[in-house]
Structures are given as structure tokens and as C-alpha cells.
Amino acid sequence: MARHSQMTSFELNDLSKSFQADIWLAENFGCEFIIGQNGWINCSCPFEDHSDSSPSFGINLEKGIFKCFGCGKSGNFVKLVSILLKKDFIDTIKLMSEASGFDISNLDTIEYKNEKFKKALEEKNQEKQKIDKLILKATIKIKKAMHTNFEKAEKYYQKLDEIVVQNNIKLLREFVNDGIK
To answer: Distance from the CA of 80 to the CA of which of 88, 113, 142, 157 falls in 20 to 30 A?
Structure first.
């Protein structure tokens, strides 16, 4: 079992994401969740040292993370379970893997690493497709603007080039939605 202490951040992230923290918290701590924004669900804080009557504690199941805006505790689900149950890292990993059906015995295999690599490539490809669509949308908007004000359109193209070089999808999205008039 010494292998657990050598888990990579990717493996911990996978374990956190596979762990159904909402169900676990409801069953073990009586948490009642309400749907928040951007993938978060909220409830009163389950930590002993924080008496909370409002839903200041949130979890994001997709990202495998938690945050309490009242007491300030935050982290991944491994940290959450470890703190709540006062368990060390190895015991926490065992408990979470058993509860979620996450097989920790395959983490060192080439097949697991290959699957992780393929998944990362797919995510990168999806992000590139989003960027390409935003660039196309920006180009169409700029071409429309070109009919009324060529100099303004030229400045838009320069700004678009700067943003594309930065490879920042958030800036690109903002530029497409708010920057081109």
C-alpha cells in the first residue's frame, strides 16, 4: 500500500471526480444541497468548527472540489474526507476508492496512463474547437463591421490577432460577445 503516497495529482483528481461527495455528505453528515451556479451545489458547512445556518459550503462534482465561504476551508474531495473523518491520507484514499468503486490497483499500468493521455488530447481538441468557433464568429462580426467602418474593423482584426496569440479562450469569448460593436 505504499503506492498511495505516490499518487500523482492526476490520479487524485480522478479519484475526487469519481467520488460522489454529495451523496456521501448527505448520508454521513445530513447535508441538504441546493443547486448553485456554474456546476456548484451548496449546503450548510459540515465542519465541526463552523456553525453555519446558511448554505455557505459548496461542492463542484465535475471538478472534484469544495469551498466554504464562511470558514474558508477548500480543496479537493480527498482533503474534505480527510478533514471530516480525521483520517490520514492512506485511510482516506482507501475509503474513497471503496465508496466510489475507483480501482486504485490499476494506476501504475500503461493502459491507465494511455487512457489519461487520450482523455487529455480529447479535452485539448474540444478546447481548440471552441476557440476555432469563436474565431470564426469574430471574423464574421468583423466582416459585417467592415461594411460600415473599415478602420474600426481593421482595429478589431488587430485585437483578435493579439488575443489569438495569447490563446486565452475567456478573453476571446469576451471580445466576441462584448468587444465587437
So the answer is: 113
